[in-house]
Design a protein that fits this description.
Blueprint: H1 2-30, E1 43-51, E2 59-68, E3 74-80, E4 84-95, E5 98-103, E6 107-109, E7 114-117, E8 123-129, E9 138-145, E10 151-158
Parallel strand pairs: 1-10
Antiparallel strand pairs: 1-2, 2-7, 2-8, 3-6, 3-9, 4-5, 4-8, 9-10
Bound molecules: copper (II) ion.
Copper (II) ion binds next to strand 8.
Length: 161
């Protein structure tokens, strides 16, 4: 009996939630404002972009700053993109004058700290693009964090030359 009551209460909550979301969407549409993504306020990403590669490039590099504005550590566990077959987080290791890439499986970002993905350093390795990407295009990227929902980003493709 009590299970039934809580089940119907849950349904009621879901319907109200959906109704509210729909109204917000209508409101934003009316005012011509794009709907902001409802995202984790602890995660702030700046300077995010993808480096344009050669027309036949098998992989592109993405760069960004990930700031932790929260009070708990962020644990970055990976990334994914509908625009690429595979996405990896890579560190660039220089040893004996040679640079090589190493996979980052887990990256802790302490409160008030940031992680830098920048040219010649760590980067988001975007492998197997599903279409040819050139300057001015945009790609979607999801950052995955432990115990948090994925953080959605839209990155512009930029040329460095
Ligand atoms: Cu790489």
């Amino acid at each position: 009996m009590s299970e039934n009551i809580s089940a119907s209460a849950r349904v009621g909550k879901q319907i109200r939630g959906k109704f509210l979301t729909t109204n917000i969407v209508v409101l934003f549409t009316l005012f011509g404002v794009s709907l902001p993504a409802i995202s984790d306020p602890d995660v702030v990403v700046k300077e995010a972009w993808v480096e344009e590669g050669a027309p036949d490039a098998m992989a592109l590099a993405g760069y960004m700053e990930i700031h932790n504005q929260g009070k708990k550590s962020l644990i970055l566990t990976g990334a994914s993109s509908p625009d690429f077959g595979e996405v990896m987080l890579h560190a660039t290791i220089v040893a004996n004058g040679r640079a090589r890439m190493e996979s980052i499986e887990r990256l802790e970002i302490k409160p008030r700290d940031r992680a830098l993905f920048k040219p010649r350093g760590s980067h988001v390795m975007l492998i197997d693009p599903k279409r040819q990407l050139k300057k001015g295009d945009r790609i979607t990227l999801f950052l995955n964090f432990k115990d948090r929902k994925a953080h959605k980003l839209v990155l512009p493709v930029k040329s460095t030359y």
